[in-house]
Amino acid sequence: MPASPPDPVLTVQGLHITVDHGRTEAVRDVSFTVRAGQAVGLVGESGSGKTLTCRSVLGALPPGCAVSAGTATLAGGDPDAGAADATELTALDRRGWERLRGVRLGAVFQDPASYLNPSLTVGRQLAEPLRVRQGLSRADAHRRAVELFTAVGLHQPEQVYHRYPHELSGGMLQRVLIAVAVAGDPELLVADEATTALDTVVQAEVLDLLGRLRAERGLALLLVSHDLAVVAEVCDRIVVLYAGEVVEDGPTDEVLAAPAHPYTEALLRVASIGDWSRRELAVIPGRPPEAGRTPAGCRFADRCAHALPDCGRQQIELRPVGDARSSRCLRAGELHLTGTALQEVNA
Ligand SMILES: Nc1ncnc2c1ncn2[C@@H]1O[C@H](COP(=O)(O)OP(=O)(O)O)[C@@H](O)[C@H]1O
Ligand SMILES: [Mg+2]
């Protein structure tokens, strides 16, 4: 018998998110599960709904945006809120979020500098929450902060402790933010384009670090990137978003070897272009429909090389394709789409 999969940490089910004060639906019917120790990658062009999805899980949607349907459930209860075995994130109040964020949920974003206070040393910004949240003495919080800086691969951590944000490089700042995010020993870390602003060498180091933290701490990771190669390197499973919908979902190696949706195939073609600077999705002709102006049928149909007249007529459901995989393509069963070997993507 195959080993049973690890327990779910985060279960997102039928999530819809509106923007413009409910006038426009930007995310439609998104579902996925992140299990303990697993890394799930959300991938898709800019504007596909990756950030809104992440922010809804972190209780940090921008003003005017809201979850209009669906659930996002964190396994394990919040005894202070009287919830026994699961925490429904879409129903949390401000105090509920304060108990979760930075404790059970950690987050890192693209622009680390904007999440740090420019007038405090980075060491204090890590040590203060350790004192407050974990009740450590000043000396213990300092010691723990230096340990965490070491764990995230910062050299000379004691010196780094006394630096201000402007004195550190982008890669170092991102490591500081990762240290802050994992300081409370969270169950889930959400990383939204966390390596996008970094140069390729530093990007690879930070991705390595995330992989290591996951292995060492059993951390569940929700990794977001517009770059499929980044997701392919770290994630066990890939969830492909297009114009606010999941178009394909499955184990990374299977999706890469034989994509089940033409949009994934197109993304793979882009990702396998060797020159990183030329990895632009503009290589797929056309543009995704704007939120609120989506067609009745398949949202990718007018850019799709395999589209038939039927594709544009009816709403296409996400359907299982084999074990633990699904695709929102009418032709998923009959098309033999071109995959890419992992090594090629990451070469
Ligand atoms: N604060 C906002 N107000 C209005 N529309 C928004 C806001 N944030 C995102 N959107 C819209 O929602 C869609 C998804 O955005 P986002 O989740 O940021 O995409 P991604 O992270 O995949 O690039 C886009 O069409 C975007 O214009
Ligand atoms: Mg984004």
Molecular structure report:
This protein has helices spanning 50-57, 94-100, 122-134, 138-151, 157-161, 170-182, 200-217, 228-234, 252-257, 262-271, 342-346, and strands at 8-19, 24-35, 39-43, 66-75, 86-88, 105-108, 188-192, 220-225, 237-242, 245-251, 319-320, 326-327. It has a single domain, classed as Rossmann fold. By secondary structure, the chain is of the alpha/beta class. The two termini are 36 Å apart. The chain is built from eleven helices and twelve strands. Helix 3 (122-134) packs across helix 4 and helix 4 packs across helix 6 (170-182). The mean pLDDT is 89. Magnesium ion binds next to helix 1.
| Largest beta-sheet characterization | 8 strands, mixed
User: Widest sheet: strand order?
Assistant: 6-7-8-3-9-10-12-11
- Per DSSP, the total helix count is 11
* Share of residues in helices: 25-40%
CATH class: Alpha Beta
Quickly list its features:
about 350 residues, alpha/beta, Rossmann fold, eight-stranded mixed β-sheet, four-stranded antiparallel β-sheet, 11 helices, about 30% helix, binds adenosine-5'-diphosphate, binds magnesium ion
What's the topology here?
Blueprint: E1 8-19, E2 24-35, E3 39-43, H1 50-57, E4 66-75, E5 86-88, H2 94-100, E6 105-108, H3 122-134, H4 138-151, H5 157-161, H6 170-182, E7 188-192, H7 200-217, E8 220-225, H8 228-234, E9 237-242, E10 245-251, H9 252-257, H10 262-271, E11 319-320, E12 326-327, H11 342-346
Parallel strand pairs: 3-8, 3-9, 6-7, 7-8
Antiparallel strand pairs: 1-2, 1-4, 4-5, 9-10, 10-12, 11-12
This protein binds adenosine-5'-diphosphate (ADP) and magnesium ion.
Residues 19-20, 26, 44, 46-52, 62, 64-65, 291 line the site of adenosine-5'-diphosphate.
